[in-house]
Each structure stands twice: as C-alpha cells, then as structure tokens.
Amino acid sequence: xxxxxxxxxxxxxxxxxxxxxxxxxxxxxxxxxxxxxxxxxxxxxxxxxxxxxxxxxxxxxxxxxxxxxxxxxxxxxxxxxxxxxxxxxxxxxxxxxx
Length: 98
Fold this sequence. Notes:
The chain is of the alpha+beta class. It has two helices and seven strands; from the N terminus they run E-E-E-H-E-E-E-H-E.
C-alpha cells in the first residue's frame, strides 16, 4: 500500500523533542482499513518512507484517529528539516511485516 502526500513538520516537545509529519485524513483512513494486517502491536504501523533522497524505515504512531510519521534526526538533519517545513512524503505500508 503506497501513498504520496505533502505535510508540515511538527515538533513534539515532550521529555525528548521529536519531529513528525501528520498523515492526512484520507490516507489515515486507508491505513486504518489494513491496520490489523500491518501492525505488530500497540497500534504502530511499519512503513518505508522517502523524503527527498532520504529513504528510511520507521513505524507510524496512532494519534487522534490518524497517524504521525516520525522523523529521526538521522533523516531530518541531512534534509535540513525543522518545525513548520512542508515536505512531500512517499510512503509504503509494510503489510505482514510482523
């Protein structure tokens, strides 16, 4: 299951600052339909993503009926991304990755 979307980077100011790109509502609805086949627990969904030249694997976090794509520093910093930057994400949900 492959998606391409544009979103704004948000910063989570918890105990450790972290950055995410919210997955749009339409794509989140499609992901929810296959969540049981994709999730390996706690509702997280394994994905492979690309932002610019950076390709990485991570897991979507469920949040308020949608999902957040985490941006590790190893991805974010080389791409020069910070809070409020707009990015285009290519993402594949890894079905049966458990």
